[in-house]
Amino acid sequence: MPQSVTIYEAARELMMGWGLSYAWAQVITLLLAFLVVALFVVVLVLLLVLLERRLIAWIQLRPGPNRVGGRTGILQTVADALKLLYKEDIIPLNVDRPTFLAAPYVVFVPALAALVVMPFGVALISGSYKYYSVANLNIGLAYILAAGAIGVIGIIMAGWSSSNKYALIGSMRTVAQLISYEVPMVLSLISVALFAGSLSLVDIVQRQSSTWAFVPLFFAFIIFFICGLAETNRCPFDLMEAESEIVAGFHTEYSGMRFALFFLAEYLNMFVIAALITTCFFGGWKGPMFLGEAGLWLTSFCWFMAKTFFFVWCFIWFRGTFPRIRVDQLMVVAWKFLLPLSVVQLLIVGWGITYRNPLFSANLIPSLTAREAYAGGIMVSYKYMTLAEGLGAISKAELVAFGWSVLGALVVVALLAGLFYRTVKGYYPSREFLEEIRAADG
C-alpha cells in the first residue's frame, strides 16, 4: 500500500523547497487550505440548494420555486443568498447574548471541520501518491464522530439561550433525536473500522480494493444511511425544523446570517454523511480509471463526487417522497430496531474476524487461528489473501462455528423484522370484535 501523503503536505514541502522556513510554509499552507475549503463549501451549498429545489419541484410537479433565472431557476439560489445577507439580524431582548451569538458557529464549525480528513481522491505526483485531504489522521473516523457530536451542544445553546419555551422544547427534542440515532450510527462505523483494521479514512478506502464494504456490511450500511437521515434533519426525520408546527424549533429566534449558518450546517452535514457513506461502504474514489495513472487526479475525484452526489440525490428524493413521522415513532425505530440490529452486525463482524473469515476482514487473515489465540498465542501479523485463498485457509471447525454464529444472528434479524412489521402495521381489532361493534350500533 502506498504511503499516505496529502496534497496539503506536498504543498508545504514545495514551499520549503523554495527556501521558506517550516513555520512560514505551515502558515501559508494553512491559509491556502482554509481559502480552498471555504470556497468549496460556498459553491457546494449553493449547488446543493439549487439541486434540491429542482429535484423536489420535479418530483412534486411544482414549477413555482424555479422562476427566477429562467426555466432552470439558477438565479433563485443567488437571490436567496443575497436575501439572507441583507436581512435584518434581530436579537431578542431577553436572550443570553454570548451564548445566543455563539450557538450558530458551534453548529457550523464542526461540520466544516469534518472536511479536513475527508479523502476526495488521489493523484500520482513525482512517483508517489498524494491524497486529496488536508490531513490523514490515523483516527480520522473517530475525529469525524467527535466533531459531529459538538453540533449537539450548539443546538442546546441555541434553544436555552433564546429565552423562548418553544425553542427550548424544540432543542430538547432535537437533542433526544440526535443522541438516539448517534448510538447505532457509531456501532455501524465500528463494524467498518473492524473490517478495515484502521480508523484512517484513507486506509478504509484502500482496504476496499477487492470488495466494497457494503457487501459484507450491508446491514451496517442500511443502519448508517437511516441514521444519517436523522442526524442531518432530513425527511422523514426532520423534527428539528418542524416547519408544519407553530414555531420552527430550536432556531425560532434566529434571523439573517445567524439563521443562514444553521441552514449551511444542515446542507454541509448532508454532504459529509453522503461522503462518509461513499468512503466507508462504496470504495471512496475507487472506480475504473479510464485515463490511467496520468489522469488519476481527475478520475478519482470524479468517482468520489459521483458516488457522493448519488446519495445526496437519495436524501433529496426521500424528502420529496416520505411524510414526517411522529417523535414516538422516531424513538421506537432508533432504540427497538436500529440499535439491536447494529449490535448483531457488530457481532457478526467480530465473529468473522475471530474465525478468520476474509469477507469480514478485508481479506486480511490473522497469522494464527482462534484456537491458537485462546491457547495463549499472540497475534503478531496479518497476511493478505484473495477471497478464494482466505476461504481455503479456514479450518473446518472455524467454518462450522462461524456458520452457527451467522445462523443465530439471522434468527435475531428475523425476529426484529417481525417486530418491526407489527409496529408499522399497528393494532387491528379482530373480526369478532368488529362484528360486536356493528351489532351494538344497530
Could you provide a short overview of the structure?
The chain has 442 residues and is mainly alpha-helical. 64% of the residues lie in helices and 4% in strands.
Write structural notes for this entry.
With 442 residues, this protein is mostly helical. Helix content is 64%, strand content 4%. The chain contains 15 helices and five strands. The protein has a three-stranded mixed beta sheet with strand order 1-3-2. Helix 1 (7-17) runs antiparallel to helix 2. The radius of gyration is 25 Å and the shape is globular. The termini are far apart. The model has no long low-confidence stretch (mean pLDDT 80).
Question: What tags apply to this protein structure?
Answer:
mainly alpha; two-stranded antiparallel sheet; 442 residues; globular; 3-stranded mixed β-sheet; 64% helix
Terminal CA distance: 79 Å
> If you average the pLDDT, what whole number results?
80
List the strand order in the largest sheet: 1-3-2
Shape: globular
What's the domain count?
Answer: 1
Structural class: mainly alpha
Helix content: 55-70%
Compute the CA-based radius of gyration: 25 Å
* Largest sheet features: 3 strands, mixed
Succession of helices and strands: EHHHHEEHHHHHHHEHEHHH
What count of helical segments does DSSP give? 15
Topology:
Elements: E1 5-6, H1 7-17, H2 22-60, H3 74-86, H4 97-113, E2 122-125, E3 128-131, H5 140-161, H6 165-196, H7 201-206, H8 218-231, H9 256-281, H10 296-319, H11 327-354, E4 364-366, H12 370-374, E5 382-384, H13 387-393, H14 396-425, H15 431-441
Parallel strand pairs: 1-3
Antiparallel strand pairs: 2-3, 4-5
Helix pairs in contact: 1-2, 2-3, 2-10, 3-9, 4-5, 4-9, 5-6, 6-8, 6-11, 8-9, 8-11, 9-10, 11-14
